[in-house]
Amino acid sequence: MESITNVSETKGSVVQPGAGQAPSRFNLSDLKIDDRKRRRRGLGWLGWFAAILGIGLLGFGAWLQLRGRPPVVAVAAARPKPSGAVSLLNASGYVTPRRRATVAAKITGRLEQVLVEEGIRVDAGQVLATLDDTDSQVRLASAQAERDATQSSLADLDVNLANAERELARTRRLQEEGISTPQALDAARTAADSFRARIATVREQVRAAEARIQVARQDVENAIIRAPFAGMVVSKDAQRGEIVSPVSAGGGFTRTGIATIVDMSSLEIEVDVNESYIARVRPGQPVTGVLDAYPDWQIASKVRTIIPTADRQKATVKVRIAFDKLDPRILPDMGVKVSFLGEQKGEPSSAGGVIVPQQAVREEAGQPVVFLYRDGKVERRAVRLGQASGATGSDDQEILAGVAEGEQVVVGDLSGLRDGQSVRLEQ
Predict the structure, then answer these.
(1) What is the architecture, at CATH level 2, of domain 101-130+227-262?
(2) Torsion of CA 190, 192, 193, 195, to 10 degrees
């Protein structure tokens, strides 16, 4: 007899009999996926994707902004080249004064007053400082008292000498009349001569006392330090209360200088020229100087002297150059670049050329070019070069054509520039 299978449906369950087994129950609700869990899993992946996408968009925007920002450049003005002359040699040096003195005291003493500061002008003989002169004043008073005491004895000696001379005259008359003896005459003459000798001695003592007074006065005067010449104080080397001495003594507690004065009218340029090029320099030769502090200012000068000796270690010869006209902007120890000029021979005139820094020139396809700055943009321009100044390390380049005087050229790294590109000036 076939078995009869009963399938009964109940709410939420299915009964399936198997062969020789009891029917099993399965809950259909366990096969469902919870909508909240599915929604939470979907929102988590979407959030991560949105965050990564946002960061990428921000980075891309920042990159675009940086890429579109104009580069920063430095510029320099093209300087005119002196007409009718070429640069034979270039050198670097410093502004130095011919007259420069560190003023010290002639005696050792304590500073009582310092009457100068850096930057003030002083006249020749002006008082710079004073020392404590108490001891010198005491010695002066002592010498004067000794002089006065010695001089006061002269009056008594003069009276005694006058009396001795009268006695001598009477004794001489009496001896002539036969009343006085020759011995009395000799005694009267001796007394008068003795007073004369004593008076001469006292007068010499007075002169010696006067000499000691002069020494004491000089000591008092030495306590006053004066400017040896007119100039400007560039350094104040001692303060009130310090001990100063003309020689180094007492270790680091004694000053040997009070102030340093420079004669600003004696400023000149001092350069070292390689001895291989010294033949190009001659006394009186015109020179153009450019101070490092004022690169657009050309200063007319000329060679004053060539020091007749060479530096064996550096293989250079020292050359001193005088300014044609001094200017208050020229200060001691300023750095300066000079060009020794000479007349052109056998070459066409290049009076219209200009001078630019060598960093403003680069080569493209064998052609020298520069970039001009104009209205916030750079303009590429081909140029014709003249003489380069490389004999002694100067960084100037002559341009014969392509750049006009006063035009601004870009200096520095030119590799990333292109014609018409917008740029910003370096602050």
Answers:
(1) Beta Barrel (2.40)
(2) 120
| pTM over cut 0.90 | no
Domain 72-81+350-425 has CATH 2.40.420.20: yes
Tokens 């520069």 belong to 370
CATH architecture label of 85-98+263-343:
Beta Barrel (2.40)
Rounded Cα distance between 278 and 309, Å, is 11
**For residue range 93-147, what is the model confidence (pLDDT) as tens digits?**
999 999 999 998 888 889 999 999 999 999 999 999 999 988 888 888 988 888 8
Q: What angle do helix axes 134-176 and 182-222 make, rounded to 10 degrees? A: 170
Buried b (16+ CB within 10 A) or exposed e, 135-158: ebeebbeebbebbeebeeeeeebe
- pLDDT tens figures, 164-207: 888 888 888 887 877 878 888 888 888 888 888 888 888 888 88
Secondary structure (3-state) at 80: strand
Long-range (24+ apart) CB contacts under 8 A made by 185-189 are 188/164
Cα–Cα distances in angstroms (integers) from residue 206 to residues 124, 195, 199, in the given order? 36, 16, 11
d(CA 174, CA 166): 12
